[in-house]
Amino acid sequence: MAVERPTLRVCALYPTLMNIYADRGNLLMLERRCRWRGIAFELSGAGIGEGLDERADLYYIGGGQDRDQALCAQDLHTHKREQLRTAAQRGAVVLGVCGGYQLLGHDYQLGDEHLPGVGLLDLRTVRGDGPRLIGNVAIEVELPRAGTRILAGFENHGGRTRLGPEAQPLGRVLKGHGNDGESGHEGARSGSVLGTYLHGPLLPKNAWFADWLIESALGLELPLAPLDDTLEELAHADARRAAGL
C-alpha cells in the first residue's frame, strides 16, 4: 500500500508588492528542500483584496517599499487580519521578514502616518529621526528542538521596533543593530508566529532555519532527513564572516 507523502502548503502574502529583499529566494529555498526530500510543495499567493488560503501550513510576508507597505497594511488589516489570526491560533507558522515583521505587530508609526498591524506579535514600530540601521547582522536564537543556533543575514530598516511583555525576542544580537540598535534584541516570536529584520535573503543563508520552519509547519515529530548541505554551510559561514563573527 502506497504511503501518501506529506505536502507543505505555503501562502505568500503580497508576493509582488512585498518582495524587495530576495523574498522569492526564501520561497524557493522551502520548495527545493521539500522536493529534495520527496515532500510535496504547494504555493499560493494573496494580493490586495484577495483572501488567504485557509489550508496553508505556513504564511509568509516579505519586505516592501514604504508606499507598497502602506497599501498592504491597510489591506491586511481590513481583509486578512482575522484569517491570519485564525491560522495562527490553529498552529500554522507565520513568518514576517522586515516590513512583513513590522506588520505583524500592533502598528507602525511613520511621523503623522499610522500603519495598522494585525497584532499577532506584541510590538510597535516607530520611524525615528536617527539613521537607518543597515549592515550585516548575526543573532543567537534558541528554538524548540533546534537548540541554540546562529542566524546571519542583512538588515536595512529605518523603523525602531520595541517589544511588549507578551512577545519574546527571536534572538540576541551578536553583531549588528537588531530591533532598535539599543536593546540587544532582534526579531520577535510568540507561539508559531515569528518576525525578523534579517534578509538578503534569510533562508538560503540559514538552511537549518528553513528546515526548522518546514518541520514546525508540518508538525513533524522527527527531524527531516539530512541533505548534502556543503554549499548551504558555505553560504552560512560567509554570512557569519560578513557580520564579523
Report on the architecture of this protein.
There is one protein chain. The longest helix has 24 residues, at 66-89. The mean pLDDT is 93. The chain is an alpha/beta fold and 245 residues long. The strands form three sheets. Strands 2-1-3-4-14-13 form a six-stranded mixed sheet, with helices on both faces. The chain has a four-stranded mixed sheet with strand order 6-5-7-10, with helices on one face. A four-stranded antiparallel sheet has the order 9-8-11-12, covered by helices on one side. It has helices spanning 23-35, 66-89, 99-103, 202-205, 207-218, 230-243, and strands at 7-13, 40-46, 58-61, 93-97, 107-110, 113-116, 123-127, 133-143, 147-157, 159-163, 171-175, 185-186, 188-190, 193-196. The chain is globular. It is built from six helices and 14 strands. It has a single domain, classed as Class I glutamine amidotransferase (GATase) domain (Rossmann fold, 3-Layer(aba) Sandwich), CATH 3.40.50.880. α1 (23-35) crosses α5.
